[in-house]
């Protein structure tokens, strides 16, 4: 038996203290997390529209394996009648101080709005076709960084989180470090900057720096195509894109 789920969802919201705490305004963003159950010997799958909860994971395992729990569980089997008859989405807040509840009909209507917005923002399909409608200076994607005019260095510098991962990429492992994230130091505080990231000297993504509420540090985070990473050592470079379209190097990985 295999069970796959997540410990929490996340909301795509800006200018908030946290995107992981559920409330009445973001319940449709945070609640959909995967619950995948593969029974022993199962060869074909199906999709259920039941409103299962994290509390249902243990009772589901016990139900499938025919095991009797030695205590009273708060949840129910995802395959049971109680779960199938649920008509509300209900969960506790992150600090357990209150419960957020919404009717299933209203939740699904709000989810459809979220789905349409995400499709407009991020697209669907292979990563090369995603994010095509967002980000500054999209014309830079696919160009060799050395072929773009460069600007002189200034006090603003950057650092890449866990940049050692790019020194020894093993594609056969099934894990590719396709997220490139880090911080910026120096420069005027609070400024949102246009950025570009090059993988093996080819620009693969563009975006903005950002700040979290209450955090003065500027951050960046890019998703790049897995295919841009080659076996072994990979060079990662993060640039600021100046007003004149020039590239100003902020940081590079140790493998560069």
Provide a brief overview of the structure:
Helices cover 14% and strands 23% of the residues.
Distance between the termini: 44 Å
Order of strands across the main sheet: 8-7-10-11
Spatial extent as radius of gyration:
23 Å
Largest sheet: 4 strands, antiparallel
Secondary structure tally, helices: 4
Helix percent band: 10-25%
Structural class: alpha+beta
Identify low-pLDDT runs. Answer: none
What is the residue-averaged pLDDT? 90
What is the beta-strand fraction?
15-25%
Secondary-structure element order, N to C: EHEHHEEHEEEEEEE
Number of strands: 11
Shape: elongated
Domain count, please report it: 2
Provide a descriptive summary of the structure in words.
There is one protein chain. With about 260 residues, the protein is α+β, with helices and mostly antiparallel strands. The protein has two domains: about 1-120, no CATH class; about 140-250, Immunoglobulin-like (Sandwich), CATH 2.60.40. It has four helices and eleven strands. The chain has a four-stranded antiparallel beta sheet with strand order 8-7-10-11, with no helix packed on it. A three-stranded antiparallel beta sheet has the order 5-6-9, with no helix packed on it. A hairpin with a 5-residue loop joins strand 10 and strand 11. It is elongated and about 65 Å long. About 20% of the residues are buried. The model has no long low-confidence stretch (mean pLDDT about 90).
